[in-house]
Amino acid sequence: MLTARIAVVASGGGTNLQALIDAQGRGELKSGSIALVIADKAGIGAIQRSEKAGIPCAVIVRREPAFEEKVLAALMEYQIDLVVLAGFLGILSGDLLRRFGKPVINIHPALIPSFCGKGFYGLRVHQAALDYGVKVTGATVHYASEIVDGGQIIAQKAVDVLPGDTPEILQRRVMEQAEWVLLPQAVETVSAQIVKEKENAL
Ligand code: GAR
To answer: pLDDT grade, residue 1 (50/70/90)?
Structure first.
């Protein structure tokens, strides 16, 4: 059976990567298979998670020269059909997205268009939501485009903000109730589309 070959790009603990690995283990990622993990720093949790799952991991340091060239080379080498930015805290250029020419999707820990764009990543997003005083936040999966957090939305899920929340508490609730559920579902949806296109091209 044809599947979409997936690369997951991560910058930190890799809990969203883990949600994808677990979904794959439960048979919920029927149309895709995680073929490669790209970690953008040495020593991050995502590396151990990929090793434990037996998935090849390339460490490509974001702050070193030719980051995007090396990423593109790895995507070509592993014949990747879909890139999932799962806790990637950098920005991929329009040039890279064009040259890759296949779907790249991202998870953002807020309801876009709130608390998104340049500078809104990780705990900063939840701090901004608390500072604003919103009562509902959530997560968004969207296509990556040249505009940071500006590509077409694939799926969103709302999460309540509760009295006494700190950025850390809110981040954890958004992960548990939204990100870890939404991302595997969205990856399956996009993978199924890719498989359909592959079948039509046969
Ligand atoms: C997640 O909350 C993810 O949505 C966010 O970083 C965290 C990474 O956690 N991503 C962004 O802020 C991207 N702008 P993880 O490494 O445990 O998946």
So the answer is: confident
The residue to which tokens 């709302």 are assigned: 158
- The atom number, within ligand 1, closest to the CA of 122 reads 12
CB 160 within 8 A of CB 57: no
Q: How confident is the model at residue 193 (pLDDT cuts 50, 70, 90)?
A: very high
The predicted model gives 64-76 an average pLDDT of 98
Q: 190: Cβ–Cβ under 8 A, 6 or more apart, which residues?
A: 4, 32, 82, 103, 105, 154
CB 115 within 8 Å of CB 140: no
Distance from the alpha carbon of residue 117 to the mean position of ligand 1, in angstroms: 14
Question: Is 82 near ligand 1, meaning CB less than 6 Å away?
Answer: no
Any atom of ligand 1 within 6 Å of the Cβ of 107: yes
> CB neighbours of 142 closer than 8 A, spacing ≥ 6?
105, 106, 108, 112, 149, 151, 152, 153, 154
d(CA 201, CA 186): 23
